[in-house]
């Protein structure tokens, strides 16, 4: 019955065992697709690892801060398929495609080394565990079982945490290998046990084979075919773990976080590596390109190796016999032939003991021969990522650095004498030539100093006579050109493209030659006056002093020149040419015959080439070439070298870390001759110098710079004496030229825009510039040259400036200052109060309206001083809680209520009230820690939010009430008040905000969901209390209804004006509105032009005089309601400069300290006006820091480093 | 089996004490070592190991875990909490995540593995090979990242004010679990499916199956009454092993989803501040914290293993006899 039921469904397979065996042996026609696909994927990945850096279309470290596509500006990270960036960019605008191509190689090398080590350990331990018996076997079994139980990631994390990522590759090799071998060992152990149980092993044992023989001839032979499979799986699991480590921030070499301002830090990383790219890719959730690209690369690689492993596993499955193609048949025949004719006879010979001993000896010698030089070279140090094929890692760092620490030059011992006044020198522009295509390098001067040669970006080499131009005779004749050009300079200006047609009429232009393509870098000039210039087609041209082309050389197609030429004393010319990712140093004889071409190792291929003064070496960033043969030499050294360069004193130097080092070569070994060493710990030590050199008197100089940040110039002698450190507010500072007396001409830009350049002359002895000169909107300074008494500068937008300096006459110096105060003020010392200790966490004391001062000192003593400077009370706060880590910051907030009592939020979520005379009034505890900053209402109630959406109202008598919002579990930290004491605050879940409204007694009025995604924005209440604003959301304050009136303009943010009116900000305009009987009405609006802050919308504030203050984060524009610009002011925050805004009165009070004279000058003026309302000076202020000083109600308070609080009266007499 | 359980229970505390001491020692020596080399960790006088460890043990035996810990990077940044609270909450959070993931992975993986084996040919279906190969190649953080990006893309698509369909950040025994569990499940599920399928395929190729078929048993009854029962023991052992795999991945997933569990806490104790966006990592190589976390993790692993071993013996009578065990080991 059962049979019949089954047979209805499907006939039973009654094959005999023999039939089944035959069936199993029948060839199956299936292809091993896993192996085929896996091999294809891995081949592609390996190929990319090998040729990736060569085919990378861009420099992987090249940053792109802004990009224009079809008229629109975009900032990074650029998305996938952005033109020019097929895989998008990371947060610094670095091309992800190029980064991935560069990053695969070091990652694969690291993973391969780890996989090999793991495989080796796994096979050895597995064999032992499988073969041995007794205690050893049990011990090995226990080790394997224990290690299997511990996740590799945890062990790797622990090991690398101790070793430190800064130890590079070996930290990872050790970390990933400690227990990574265990899975291989387990498999090998099982396989060994299977083999061990076979009868042929028993037979071998019976005929007297030793364990070693059985292991090597039988067991290992059975295991060897597994190795490829095990290696594949090891590779993929290592890569997975390494990716996990990278994701957590652990990757080869590591990186650092550099603080760029109080609350902003930026991650500084070197050359790309997949782990590093993963670690830095998780930037913003809305722009996941970088993460997706890197994650997918890792996924594909792991998939490839897994497929290979799976394919090999299938191949090892002997039950399945695959189709034998011609290739496999041939391979098998070849292997059989090899085994019979070579393998077996040779093995027989090697079985003889004598032969074995000789072989072991040879092997040992070979091993020593390989290891000894390596050990001698490496000094057992850990290589960094640079050793993985990216030797430029260290040198490349400064290029990727966009962030710097705030410098504290005062703490560096220097020989600078700030007291000394800078020499009175004035710089002026003698003439300016404009060349529309722009310049890429410096000009050069003829040997007699009369002709200036400069190459333009469109490939014109100009020879300009310097002397006739000085007289301006010829150029002034062409002034009509100048009249069409909107320029601020009252100097002769001429546009160079016009010269080609008017050459004969302009005496200033000696001749002009067109190069085959656009010019690159600086031209060079030899002792005979011949000029050499390289061009974008990769060619080099020699031009005679008469302007004739003597010869031109052209390298292979597809190359371009990367630097201008350099000439050594024997007149050989060198320049770099290449593609975007590889540079070749080319040597050309004086007759124009190519001598040699050597590929450079450095990735900093756009750096200029330089030659040692003796013509022996050529330097391209961290590469050295022998000038005669072109050999790229790798000197043996322990130093991490950023750059080699020749000094003006004839010696050769390099930069390593923050130091300039003089070196010599002896038998390929780099010998340190001298070091200009200095204490850079307080400087921008986290970034490498962007420029360095050594003057003719062997003084080293280093330039530190960052885009948008400040820059520094440091002079250090070889005796380690810091001659001076100067600071500049420049973005992209560039030392254009230096005189023998160390007068240095530094140029830079004031913004990211790179349009307006400014230059200063600095001397080590003076902190302040000798002169400063605005070059106008002509781009960044590309090159500089000192010739005669002039400084010549070229700029990216085509300016060629001739600048001369002259001593300022004494009467000029004694002229009245331009901003003579129209009214004078007065100042008076009131009192000083010495504090027993520094204030808590170095906070500034709180000063209330009546002039009382409150502060908490480090010993948790809370004190009050009356306006006369006398101690009112001291109150000891409870001691801090026991903390394991002293680094952890504590929080203590004192808030002063109207009656003088204080509310202090302690670090343990306790809040205490202190009476005006210093007694404990009450104590309360918050449910969770404080959120945001507490707010004091007009009714004198202090409102405080905790993290759990709880609102607390405190007055002098303690907690009035508390309320916990049920709408959402978290607080955003903003509180706003209605006219009748209503309180509004925002609570949030993840992704949604709610406005919670309460009356003054803490009763819930309403709660309303916000539509805006910007619910962390500030909450406003209109002056009449009708509306509540949360960014672009408008709520009815009485009902909480979200109002959606028809508004004719897009709303960026609603604003409650202090004048009682309601406003809205819409892009670059502000409109006053009301909701009347006709609905939403715009009453008037004011618009303005962007100040070029790249689409950043400003903060707008309307004061009680209806003046609209538009704050572009430092620059404030003030408009009246008619849209007239009433004034513009840019704040100037430095250590020596204090500013106090009174926007309601449209005034600013400034105090500036002159450290040379120790005079503090204070003034008040109307915004937009140059004339101060009053001005006063306070002498003998020798301890001024703007960050620990404040202005309140006509008094200036200075909190000195000696923990003394000084009070001065300032203002109108 | 009673002897087996008693023996394992006796060894367990000894092992835990050893793990605890080793992890304390590791952190005790590692922290000053790192402090010397990096400005991000304060240089401290480590004192003596044994007195410090005795202090720590006294704290443990007094059950005094009131030591303040500052857990950085949590939802409430730098909110101070006691060590007891932090570690208790983290353990609960991690165990919950682990239990849910393990349960779902086991069920789905087992079902997938079962479905992938064809009755007649005893072979594993190709689709399972594809799925397992893909699944095993996907790092959990990659799966998690993709899930987060999908959530964010949805919010961006719907416009401001849109709630995420599923929370992708933070802790909660609700929808917060979905994405972390999904990200964690990928690898263990396919791994279990593969193991189940391979064992089942091997089992169905055995002689007794042919005999059963010849006697007229249906495939369904053979699979459910014999084959699946026979493979249950190795499957249970695999599931016990999966808990370790999942916990390893939990470090990354808890980090990614800000799940305040032991994995995230462990990452804080092992990842120094300069590698994270947080200014301070006060937990970095903190010996008491490190020792406590590692001990708890070890306890979870060992207990998991013990439960697995007991279950195996319960479902497979062949393993209950100590002699059989010995034979098996051989």
Structural account:
The complex is a heterodimer of chains A (1213) and B (330). With 1213 residues, chain A is of the alpha+beta class. The longest helix of chain A has 38 residues, at 211-248. Chain A is globular and about 110 Å long. In chain A, the strands form 19 sheets. A five-stranded mixed sheet of chain A has the order 9-5-38-37-36. In chain A, strands 15, 16, 17, 18 and 19 form a five-stranded antiparallel sheet that branches. In chain A, 24% of the residues lie in helices and 33% in strands. With 330 residues, chain B is mostly helical. Chain B has one domain (2-329): MetI-like fold, CATH 1.10.3720. Chain B contains eleven helices and two strands. In chain B, strands 1-2 form a two-stranded antiparallel ribbon. In chain B, strand 1 (68-71) and strand 2 form a beta hairpin. In chain B, helix 6 (178-204) runs antiparallel to helix 8. The two termini of chain B are 19 Å apart. At the A-B interface, helix 1, helix 6, helix 10 and helix 12 of A face helix 1, strand 1, helix 4, helix 5 and helix 8 of B.
Give me a quick take on this structure.
The complex is a heterodimer of chains A (1213) and B (330). Helices cover 24% and strands 33% of the residues of chain A.
